[in-house]
Structure formats: structure tokens, C-alpha cells
User: Fold Muramoyltetrapeptide carboxypeptidase LdcA (Peptidoglycan recycling) from Micromonospora matsumotoense.
Amino acid sequence: MALPAYPAKPKPGDRVAVVSPSAGLPGLFPHVHELGLRRLREEFGLVPVEYPTTRQTRADPRDRARDLTAAFADPTITAVLATVGGDDLITVTPHLDDAVLRANPKPYFGYSDHTNVLNHLYRLGMVAYHGGSVLVHLGRPGAPHPLTFDSLRAALFTSGWYELTPAPEWGDEPGDWRDPSTLAVAPPMRPGEGWRWRGPSTVVEGRTWGGCLEILHWLMAADRVPSAAELAGSVLVVETSNEMPGAQEVFRIMRNMGERGLLAAFPAIVVGRPKAWDFERPLPVPERLAWAAAQRGAITRALAAYHPDPVVVFDVDLGHTDPQLIVPYGGEIVVDAVERRIMVRY
Assistant:
């Protein structure tokens, strides 16, 4: 498989698609969605274009795929931004028109359930972008997080190298979208602890692949992931979702990746900071710390069995916690364990 190619970038004033191929939550939380759209216009100078299913809940997968295909087909659209994640995009991607997507490459931004689309575009030979959503990041309560917006701005408009940096403070307690008044209140944050490095002191350069760990497990079950040979030399980038999978589940997913031969393909692995708080499971801080430590331990245990010597970086701000750094999917990355730096090329 040829290396994925970078699509052309938008510029301020361009029209960009705003789509919901996963969950149609803009229809349930229009106040959050409108805030995100306003910031897209005012902070980035882009013109959002919605599609028929953008605000529809329970839209048919074929209709969502039709909207996504139409966004790529429209020559006036220069990028495609997802509104939010969900849990059934695996039923949408089979209905995409791959010929249209290949003929009209565009930057696609999404994470979580959008791992389905990111992986799909990767297999079509297109670099996409893990991160960014209209509701979660553009519609963040209080004010945009500066690290998220700087990363998103660079990923949208530039093509050079960008250094990811540890967040000086971070959080995993979002506002309650059911209460519009929470949009005025910034989410609580905690001091950052920096990244955690393990493995050899070396520099790894490669192309990224991965995404939300639970979605990768679904994709393996559906046999929609590249082979170990195709991924050889790549850097695995993974994070876990707001459903907060336990350490044993994380170990089993990583173990199954090892059994498939995938883990040994990656000379470096970048792991997102795990989200350890949810409305259904509001853990106190000590339990959150233990939760994150157990997840790191589960990944380390799986690697010990299947691939004991990669460079591993834990607690990078690229997943379901706040802020979120954008990572090119299929794009270039340098993981420097000597200087303890991570660079990506947007």
C-alpha cells in the first residue's frame, strides 16, 4: 500500500463541511452546536456548511454516508469537520463512495468513533486528522482551550512540522450539555504531570495509525485494518474513550492486537491520557489516578508479551481529555526519546 498523501489545506474564508456521520447530537444540543459554529466562523474565519443529517438523530447509516460522500464531492468544500463522536460509524463506512473520496481528497477531522473514517481514509491513501469536533472542542464551555485551538489552527491551515507539548493543566470533567448555563463556566482543570516515557533512548520517525482503542477492536473484528506488513515501521497512536474501559479490557484489546501481529509492527507507541471521569462514573481524583495507572500497567503488560522494546509515551493530550492536540492520521511523526519531544507534520 502506498503511503497516504496529504490533502490540500483550506484557507480563511473557505467553506468547510460540518457533518454528523456518527451521532446527530447537534439536534439534541443546538446551543452547544451553535457556539461551536460561531467560533468556527469567528476564530478560524471559515464558513460552515451543514448537511441534511448534521442535526438528525438516528439517521439511517446510508443517509449519513451520502452526506459525507457529498461533502467530499463538493468542489467548494475544502475540509470536513465532524460534530461529535458516537458508536455506530462502523455501519456507515461500507456505504461511502470510495471512488468519489479518492478523486476528491480533503482534510477530515474527527476522533473517537471517527476512527472508523480515519482508518477508511488511510486505506484509501489519504492523510486525515485525529482530533477536533464542533461540539466538544469548538463548543468548549467558558472559552476555547488555547492548546487545542493552536493545534487545530495549525492542522487546518499549515503543512509544516508542529511540536506537541505537555499540557500545563488538563481536565476530564466536561460541562453538562443538558444545562445551557454550563456553557458560561470553564471546566475544572488539574495540574499537568507531563508525559511518561519508557523504552529505549532512540528517535523513531514514521507514519501514524491507530485511534480510539475500542473502535480499533471493532475494526479488527470486521477485518478492516491494514496488515502488520503494511503497518511495519509506523507509530501506533491510541487512546481510550469516555466509556472508560477497565484495565483488563484494555489489556485484552492490546493482547488481541499482539495476536494479530500488529503490536510488533510499531517501533513507537503514543498513548493518550485516559479519561477517568464520566457523569455515570464520577470518580474522585485518587481513584482517577489509580484508574490511569492501571491502564498504563495493562498496556505495558501486553507489550511485555508481544513487543517488549518499543518507545512508549503515556499521557499525551490527544484523546478524550481536555485539551486535545491534533495528530495527523497516516501523516508523519517523530518520537524523540532522547530529547523527549514529539513532532508531527500537518
Q: What stands out?
A: The mean pLDDT is 97.
